[in-house]
Amino acid sequence: MQEVKAVVWGTVCVVALVVALTGCGGEGNTAVGGIGSGDGKGKTSGALSAEQVRSALPTNESLGEIFVGNDAVVGEGEQARQHCAEQTGTTCNGMVAVGHKEAAVRGKASGDEVEFTLFAFDSPQAASAAAKGLAAKIRGREPAPEPTQIAAGADETEGFTNGRKRTDVVMRVGNVLAYVLASTSNSDNVKQVATQQVDLIKKAARQP
Fold first, then answer.
1. Does residue 136 surpass a pLDDT of 70?
2. What's this model's pTM, rounded to 2 decimal places?
């Protein structure tokens, strides 16, 4: 999956993220502010911990028959916040945990790939600011991508496509910024994985 990494994260950024985050999950249980389920129901207190972020990332089982992925990378701390700041162009103050997972079509039947990145914050306002920053960076690419509508059930959503088998979906779900990059020309697959990501975040937010 090097092509997608190089385009979105940059090889150096990917290596730095893995070094910073691998093995970091499971240590943080910071509880500040509140997080909504995204549908106005079942609110629960506290920001998502690193382990909740891990559970909010799709698994190979939840991806079903289309995609299969590698292990999720999850972590927290200052290095994770700095990575968030680099990716979103914002300060990422209040960021609690970050997670990342990549997947490809089973059996390599095509070159379709998808990446999931989550940044969990201590407030919806902080998550929204980072989401707007990330969307602005994507919007400013050359050539400029075209806006696209993705109805995935998030509180805020901005989608972009470059017309060359690539769709970026930036979403806020409660206190979480979710970024889905889909390298596929199948719009149904894009909506499916984006919706699944939103549902998993809502489920994780209800966990104790």
1. yes
2. 0.77
